[in-house]
Amino acid sequence: MGAELGKYKQVVAARSADKEILKGAQDGGIVTSLFAYALDEGIIDGAIVAGSYEDDPNVESTASQNHHWRPKPVVVTTKAELLAARGTKYNISPNVSLIKEATRSYGLDKVGIVGTPCQMQAIRKGQLYPFGWRDVESSIALAVGIFCMENFPYQSILQLVEDHAAMKLESVKKMEIGKGKFWVYGKRGQVVQLPLKVTHKYEQPGCHVCMDYVANLADISTGSVGSPDGWSTVFVRSKIGDSVWAKAMAAGVFETQPIEKVKPGLELVSKLANEKITKNRNTLEARKTFGVGKGLRNPFI
Ligand code: FAD
Ligand code: SF4
C-alpha cells in the first residue's frame, strides 16, 4: 500500500456515536458528525454541503428537476440543516462554487466544506493561487473529502434509475455503490442491484481521467470501502484534520476500530484506488494518441 492512498497520519474504521445522525447518513455519518461537532466548538461557523432542489420555489420545475436527488450546494449553520443534507447524491454538487458567497453573503470566517477528490484539488489550488477568491486561504477551516470512483450528470442518474431500476427518482430512498454493484433502495422497500457494467456509460467522461480515489488533499477523507456496513474508513491527513479528529475523539463523537481488525480492510481500498488509477491512466494515454489530454499528468504518483 503506497502512493495510491495519499499521505495520512492515521486511518481507522469509525462511525458516529450520534444515533440521530447515523440513521439517515450514507455510511458511518462521519461528514455530518464532524461538521456538527466543529460547529458546536466554533472550529467552523458554517459548512458548504450538498443540499437539494427539493421544494425550491426558485426552480421552474418538473417533478424530476425539483427534488431530493438533484444536489444544490448550500451553506448551513445548524445541525438541523446538516441533517437535512445527509447521504450521497450521485451527481455533481458544485460545492466549491459557493466559497466566495459563504464568506461574503453569509459572512463566514471559518468555512467547512465537503467534496469529491477533484473538489479538494480545486480548494487547494484556490488556496495556492490567488485568482480572485477573496480570503479563501484563511477562511477554509475544515475540508472533508469523500472517496469517489466516478460521478454522473443529473440527467444520467435520472435515466439510469428510471430505465434500469424501473423506479422514479422521487420514489428512491437511497442509492449506493458497494460490493461491485449499484444499489437502488425504494421508499416502499424495493431493492434493485445493477452490475457496474450497466452504469459505466452514464458516467461523466471527465471522471475517466481522474487519478484520485480517496481525496488525498482533504484534511480528513472518508468513504465506506474497507469498513463493515454502517462504518466508514477515515483517513486523517493534515495538521488541521489531526487536531479536529483528536478533539472529536476526546469528546466521544466517534466510535472507532483499528483498520487492521476490520474486514475487508485497507487492502480493498488500496486495490480499488490502484484499479482507478491504472484504468484512468490508460484512458489518458489513449486520449493522447488522438491529441486530447497532452500535458495532463498525475500529481499524486
Ligand atoms: P453523511 O454524514 O451522510 O454526509 C454526506 C455529506 O456529503 C453530506 O454533507 C452531503 O451533503 C455531502 N454530499 C452528498 N452528495 C455529494 C456530492 N455529490 N458532492 C459533494 N458532497 C456531497 N465511497 C466509497 O467508499 N467508494 C466509492 O467509490 C464512492 N464513490 C462516491 C461517488 C460519489 C459521486 C459520491 C458523492 C460519493 C462517493 N463515495 C464513495 C462516498 C460515500 O458515498 C459517502 O459520501 C461517504 O462515505 C460519506 O458518508 P457519511 O455517512 O460519512 O456522510
Ligand atoms: Fe471528481 Fe474524479 Fe469523482 Fe469524477 S471521479 S467526480 S473527477 S473525484
Please give a structural write-up:
This protein has 301 residues and is of the alpha/beta class. The protein folds into two domains: 9-151 and 213-288, no CATH class; 155-202, Roll (Nuclear Transport Factor 2, Chain: A), CATH 3.10.450.750. Helix content is 32%, strand content 21%. The protein has an eight-stranded mixed β-sheet with strand order 3-2-4-5-9-10-1-11. Strands 6-7-8 form a three-stranded antiparallel β-sheet. A hairpin with a 2-residue loop joins strand 6 and strand 7 (181-186). The longest helix has 24 residues, at 266-289. The protein is globular. Flavin-adenine dinucleotide (FAD) binds at residues 25-32, 49-50, 71, 85-90, 93, 95, 114-116, 146-149, 151, 177, 222-225, 232.
Give me a quick take on this structure.
This protein is α/β, with parallel strands linked by helices.
Topology of this protein?
Elements: E1 10-16, H1 19-24, H2 30-40, E2 46-52, E3 71-76, H3 79-84, H4 99-104, E4 111-115, H5 117-128, H6 136-139, E5 140-146, H7 154-164, E6 172-178, E7 181-186, E8 191-195, H8 196-199, E9 220-223, E10 232-236, H9 239-250, E11 254-258, H10 266-289
Parallel strand pairs: 2-4, 4-5, 5-9
Antiparallel strand pairs: 1-10, 1-11, 2-3, 6-7, 7-8, 9-10
The chain binds flavin-adenine dinucleotide and iron/sulfur cluster (SF4).
Iron/sulfur cluster binds at residues 116-118, 148, 150-151, 204, 206-207, 210, 212.
Please count the beta strands (DSSP E, at least 2 residues each).
11
Q: How large a portion of the residues is in β-strands, by DSSP E?
A: 15-25%
What binds here, in terms of ligands, is: flavin-adenine dinucleotide, iron/sulfur cluster
Name the helicity range: 25-40%
H/E element order = EHHEEHHEHHEHEEEHEEHEH
- Alpha-beta content class: alpha/beta
Task: Provide a count of the helices.
Answer: 10
Instruction: Report the principal-axis shape.
Output: globular
Tell me the number of structural domains: 2
Strand order of the largest sheet: 3-2-4-5-9-10-1-11
Oligomer: single chain
Average pLDDT for all residues = 91
| Radius of gyration, whole Å | 19 Å
